[in-house]
């Protein structure tokens, strides 16, 4: 099967300090993969490179391709990367909603990457787009909140709105960077249940960074563990053991399930 994400030889430095070392990773369509590792191990940097968000950066001789399209190293933000971004739904730890806009408007923003710019800049959405946005809100259990201001929702609800936005975007790949790090356990479980549901029922590929190892073990068959910018482990969650994990986190293991 062709990988939906393929990274080869990825090195990354910030101001002379190398933070990713010769990373290689292949993700198959429909996988749900957890990226784990201590704070500073390079999870977010790796995820940003997968998304094309870092495509303007120089990253040496590496090759990254997503959905068969090359994310050029040191390249310009070109049409190819724009199209790529339309296929990737990015979920942030801090939700990144526009707080003063309604929940529905926020979800509709997911359409922007696929509509003519003039229509986007006028905020003119078609009935089909509005229908899709409402169906996406329904999917995350927030249809009743469509006309509320986004900033009035709880953190867990805002994160579910962000997922509805990715659904409305019709993203093929969901990249989620610490989506549950700011949430209480119950909200965290709801968010992870929704991501797992999208992965299982819609076959979307999900790559999620998680500080909490037990969530990774519960939701993801495959775990990729980063340590100091190296891929330290890549395999089945069943192969992880406590000694390995304690070493990975230098004794700072976070379990909260
Ligand atoms: P994680 O997400 O696993 O916590 P990051 O990818 O955020 O790790 O960071 C990896 C390393 O890169 C850290 O040492 C961090 O300080 C460094 N780093 C990340 N982003 C930047 C940046 N924009 N400028 C300088 N250093 C950075
Ligand atoms: Mg991070």
TrEMBL record:
Single GO molecular function: ATP binding
Protein's name in the database: Phosphonate ABC transporter ATP-binding protein
Source organism of the structure: Pollutimonas subterranea
GO CC aspect terms: membrane
Keywords for the protein's UniProt record, in alphabetical order: ATP-binding, Cell membrane, Membrane, Nucleotide-binding, Translocase, Transport
Domain ABC transporter span(s) in chain numbering: 5-253
Matching InterPro entries: AAA+_ATPase, ABC_transporter-like_ATP-bd, ABC_transporter-like_CS, ABC_transpr_PhnC, MetN_ABC_transporter-like, P-loop_NTPase
Keyword ATP-binding attributed: yes
PANTHER family to which the protein is assigned, alphabetical: AMINO ACID IMPORT ATP-BINDING PROTEIN, PHOSPHONATES IMPORT ATP-BINDING PROTEIN PHNC
Keyword hit for Amino-acid biosynthesis: no
